[in-house]
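User: Hi! I have a protein structure encoded as tokens and I'd like to know what sequence might fold into it. I'm fairly new to this, so please keep things simple.
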């Protein structure tokens, strides 16, 4: 006998609909911890001086502390209209004390545009910082890092701040 159901994920993730799940399928459903981040990241030095980007990141956890991350950034301040970055990487997140987490990640991707001399466009970014839980599953994030385009001229220290939210996705 089949049961009809819908599974919804909150946040900016897509709605997932599942129909005709058998009893065996329900037993195989597992929760996957996920964080989504909206942030502003400042570059201390870029091709045309200081700049800032708005970013969106999604962290999908494989273990309690280890995750895969994807990120996208677009320029919003500085004299470099059209600059953007898309990247993916891995990270670790640990709870330090009640309501305070340490988060560190390495992102590898591609970017350029806006007159930024990114060379071939390959970039690396390392970020580490703290996430403070404001409300249940809502966090305020502060991170510092380093961004480098190895074949280009963009190399700078970064800092970012923003909000993130946590939820569990159901996966089959």
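Assistant: Happy to help. Inverse folding works backwards from shape to sequence: for each of the 172 positions I chose a residue that suits the local structure. Here it is:
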């Amino acid at each position: 006998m089949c049961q009809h159901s819908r599974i919804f994920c909150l946040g900016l993730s897509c709605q997932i609909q599942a129909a005709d799940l058998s009893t065996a399928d329900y037993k195989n459903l597992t929760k996957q911890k996920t964080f989504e981040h909206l942030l502003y990241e400042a570059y201390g030095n870029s091709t045309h001086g200081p700049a800032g980007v708005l970013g969106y990141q999604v962290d999908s956890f494989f273990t309690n502390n280890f995750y895969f991350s994807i990120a996208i950034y677009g320029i919003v301040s500085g004299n470099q209209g059209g600059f953007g970055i898309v990247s993916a990487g891995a990270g670790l997140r640990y709870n330090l004390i009640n309501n305070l987490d340490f988060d560190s990640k390495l992102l590898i991707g591609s970017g350029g545009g806006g007159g930024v001399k990114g060379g071939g466009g390959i970039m690396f970014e390392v970020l580490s910082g703290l996430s403070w839980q404001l409300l249940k599953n809502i966090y305020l994030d502060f991170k510092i890092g380093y961004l480098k385009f190895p074949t280009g001229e963009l190399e700078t220290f970064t800092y970012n701040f923003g909000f993130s939210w946590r939820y569990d996705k159901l996966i089959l």
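A useful reference point when you look it over: Residues 23-28 form the longest helix (6 residues). Feel free to ask if any position seems puzzling.
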